[in-house]
Amino acid sequence: MTCVEFLWLTYLTLFINLLKFATANGLIYENGNRENDEIYWIDSSVPTGCATANISENCLQHTQEYLEALRSRQSWAVKMYESSGRLVEHLLYIDGSENVHFESGLFDDCVSVRSDAIAFKGQYCTVFFGLKPVTNEQSVDDHETTSSDDYWTSKENIYDNQKPAVGFCLPSSCTAKDLRSAISQRVGYRVIKGENFSITVLASENNCYTQEKININSTTFDTFTRVVLSAFCLLAFVVLSATVHDVWTTNEVDNDSPPKLFALQLLHCFSSQRNCKTLLSTSEDAKSSLSCLHGIRVLGSSWLVLLHFAGMGTIVRQIYNKPMALKSAFRWETQFLAHGTFAVDTFFLLSGLLVAFGQMRHLDQSNGFFNIKRFYIRRYLRLTPAYVFVLMFIITFFPLIGTGPDWNFVQRISQSVRSNWYSHLLYINNYVFPSRFTSPDYGFGETWYLACDMQMFWLSPLFIYPIWRWKKTGIIWTTISLFSLLGISLNVFILYDLPATIQLTRKSEILKLDEFANKHYLETFARMPPYIIGILLGWLLHKTRNKKIHINKCLLVGGWILATLFGLVVIYGMFPYVDEKEVPVINPFVRVSYGVLHHSVWAIAVGWVIFACTHGYGGFINRFLSWKLFLPFSRLSYGVYLTNLNLILLYGANTRKPLYVSDMYIITTYFGILVSAFAMAFFIFIFVEMPFQNLDRLLFSENTKDLKTKKT
Question: Which residue ranges make up each domain of the chain?
Answer without folding.
Answer: 42-214, 221-280, 300-710
